[in-house]
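Incident review: delayed structure delivery

Summary: a single-chain prediction request sat in the queue longer than the usual turnaround. Root cause was a stuck worker, restarted by the on-call engineer. No data loss occurred. The affected request and its eventual output are reproduced below so the record is complete for anyone auditing the incident later.

Affected input:
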Amino acid sequence: METKLSTRSLMTRCALKLINESLVPDSISKLGGRANIWRINDTLDSDQDGALISVRTSMNNTIAFKHTVHGWETLDDVKFVASVSIDATTSPATITARLIDADIVKSAFNRALEGRQKAGVATRAC
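Output delivered after worker restart:
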């Protein structure tokens, strides 16, 4: 029996495949109650709790994280960001997946926030 996957499920599977091929973890599991956060464990890794990865999906190669008074929600908690983008919601022809160090993403988000603030664009932390 063939099962049709939702577009979001397809994108998440693509992200997990990228994570498995790039990082080769011993195990990968979804964190309950969190928005598409995954934990990878590696017996060679000294971090006993494993690394957290945020999977972000989009249609236009952009990702977002909510900025709060405490920092970037979710982004501050993860080691990697897996970004998956498609070219169409129905019958996508192209899926683009990237695995990025969370510190690089955070640095780019901080620079963008600083630029908006310097330009006088209203920004609010929740």
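Verification: The chain has a mean pLDDT of 84.
Action items: add queue-age alerting; document worker restart procedure.
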